[in-house]
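Protein in question passed on here:
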Amino acid sequence: MVFTMHGFSNAGYIVTLGLLSLIGSMAFWFRDVVAEGTAKCLSPKVVLFNYTLNIAKAITEEEIKLALDYYYKNINNLKISKDQLGYYLAGLLEGDGSISLPAIGNTTLNRVLNPRIIFTSHINNLGFYAYIQSELGGIGRFQLSNKNTIRYIIGDIKGILLIINLINGKLRTPKNQTFNKLIDFINKKYSLNIQESILDKSNLASNSWFTGFTEADGYFGVKIIEAKPKSDTRKRSVSTNISLIFRLDQRSWDKPTSSHMLPIMNIIAKFLMCNLLTYSTKESGEILSISISRLESLKYILFYFNKYPLLGIKSKDFKDWEIVYYMIVHKEHLTEEGRLKIKSIRSNMNKNRTI
């Protein structure tokens, strides 16, 4: 183009050649970009998964020790009995855990790949999972995958066999199918003969499975409705109302097994003597929901969790929730002083908790 501006002979041919070269290089470049983006080995899902792994950060032994010390001093100093640990872990795995199964055989670098059992939780629960690790003899490792999420990963064969022995026959959800695939994998790879896990159908009140499941997915809430006078848009005045709620939500479908969660949620609803409700969200689709606010039903929940205590950070929410329960029973929520105390308690529960 510069040659053309200065009147050089044959400058037009040079401009045309340069333009064709530019278009050709862009066409070939974009062709390669599209091919790489749609290739199986570089699908967006795999790229994002690898990116997540790359930013995961190992949690040091010193940080784990400090979290465990803090846990014993400020969160929970209870001990779970050996006979209940397996039920508790089964419920915890079915709520907050996953099982990752690689292909059988060695990699091109001749590395032996083992499956992984992964528990995922909020950073506030690091002390709790450090306690679980200590109860399991120190197996597994910890990762911080972002600012607020920790992963407790059990990937060595010794640790996996320990977990299999502890929770075999104690799972209740469709995740038991994935667990049996894990057993089949271990049997084939290490020439073992571990029996497959039979879905547990025992009474929920007889063990701590529901405690572990609630640790992962349960919610203890305090609902406060402030008093409102009559107005042009409000025909009746609204008096102050304070109530408690226990809630447990689950997606209706377990994606890894393409199985419905309705059977186990019906069992839980029957156990808690309440109705099972459903609602839908754009992100998760149909949700199965258990929601309880009647004091008589909450009394039963109180009895269960005092018999089989929560051990994680959610135990603090339960203890605060229990205080409000007895305040309501004794009518303290009807006084101004009582309402102020309840508001103060609620301000540090669930997402607002600072440990």
In short: The longest strand covers residues 241-251. The chain is about 50% helix and 15% strand. The domain at 51-190 is CATH 3.10.28.10 (Endonuclease I-creI). The chain has two domains: 51-190, 218-352.
